[in-house]
Amino acid sequence: MSNILSALTTLYPNQVWLELSPQELEQTGSSQQEYSYDVARWTAFKNRLTLDAFLAWLKAESGVEDQPEVWPSRDDLSSFWEVVNGTAIQLGETRIILIPNEGMDINEYEVPAEWVDIPQWAADYYLAVQVNPDDCWLRVWGYATHKKLKQAGQYNSISRTYSLKRGELIEELNVMWVARELGSDHKAAIKPLPTLSPTQAHRLLEQLSQKTPYSPRLEVPFAIWGSLLASDEWRQTLYNRRVANPYVQVVSHAAAPSKKPVELRQWLRHIVESGRNLVEDGWQTFEDIFASPEPIPIRGQKEVERTSPNVIASVIRLLQPNQPEEIRYQAAGVLGEIGAGNPDAIKALTELLQAARDEETRWQAALSLGKVDPGNPQAGIKKARLIDLGMQLGGNTVALVVAIMPKADERIGVFLQVQPCSGGKLPPGLKLTVLTEFGETLQEVTARSNAQSRGKDKLLQLCFSLPPGTRFCIRVTGDNASVTENFVT
Q1: Which residues form a coiled coil (predicted)?
Q2: pLDDT in tens, 275-293
Q3: pLDDT band at 224, cuts 50/70/90?
Q4: What average pLDDT score do residues 14-19 get?
Q5: Cα separation of 48 and 31, whole Å?
Q6: Backbone φ and ψ of 97, nearest 5°
Q7: Is the pTM of this model over 0.70?
Q8: What are the structural domains of the chain?
Q9: Whole-number Å distance between alpha carbons of 103 and 237
Q10: Which DSSP symbol is given to 291?
Q11: CB–CB of 248/91 below 8 Å?
Q12: 160 φ/ψ sector (left φ>0, alpha ψ -120 to 50, else beta)
């Protein structure tokens, strides 16, 4: 057992901690079945990893005598993972659902409604699993009953999930084994689903088999969707058709997007803990791709004096409320370039971040604060990665820029940009889209053309904030090709 895992086990002794060997990770990755889009491939990877590790623990260490079986069978798993997260295990008359997630924050447990509201799928117990392939471990950090999810869970009609707060789960699995031996009824009543005619089913299969970079689980009303999935034959047909018609995603030659969602909160955590902007998974610092902005000139000052206290003080004066907003914005950017470690610059940027009414000025203050005082809990961070959509932009690729900063109530502010790496204009029709993890469009902006049908915009940008643990996607589309990145706040 690694030192990290040993320490975690000591901190949380009531949870089940399982070590994953590099061989297990490699074997799981190489044994993957076919899926029609990247998110499904990642879903299958984390579910198979969880299933194999948990079954091995169940047989070796749990003390449970019943022989565990995969429900309905291992051969059926791909048809589940193509469209929904989760795996079912049968222990005699007891059914257990494993719901693995890779996020670092475990303040909330989410279960797809399919596992709760499809009568044939519903289980007695639902286990919350955190998977960390990078550090080679997973843990079962709690469980809930079907009755608890139905009666106390918060139902989200947009994502079609039931959620419970961490404190509402039971942490120790021994309690579950005792309750199982006592034969308690842990299932709530489930409303029957309608019966689909063969004609309805074939129509649905035709609609839902179209290639998409996301699960079709939200495309039709739940009652109809649930009825389709409840049929082994129709679910398998849906899988076969989608795999035969996969969504082809064009990715960057410079840095292919990872299947694992990018954890934005980890970016903030890294900069606080290490005091520097780490480069990882193809994401680079903004300055590595784009040259740092030239500081606005300070009259009468030579280049070597830019970081002197007097120069910094003169820039700080430009942050005052009586200055035009554009000047305050520019001055905040300059402080990020010349004020590293200067306590007056840090104080001025912190005050500007709290007092400024203009959203762009606040963003500039947060990002500059991240440069001059990386460990500051209010600091923002900006990263970028190159993408290639096969378009000739004067020989240049474009970059996706993602900036984040902490907000109130643990929310994370997200500021997106797409821009050519060496200046110039974006091609008309290029789109920047923000989607839910299920593919629903939240925001979208499109590059415009001028009177000569040439590019008009130097960049595209969107801004929003999200609560912790929210999954979303960013897509850049152009010339019939697209690149999608998955994130979690």
Answers
A1: none
A2: 455 555 678 888 777 755 4
A3: very high
A4: 93
A5: 9
A6: -110, 130
A7: no
A8: 3-194 (3.40.210), 250-277+377-489 (2.60.40.10), 292-373 (1.25.10)
A9: 32
A10: P
A11: no
A12: left
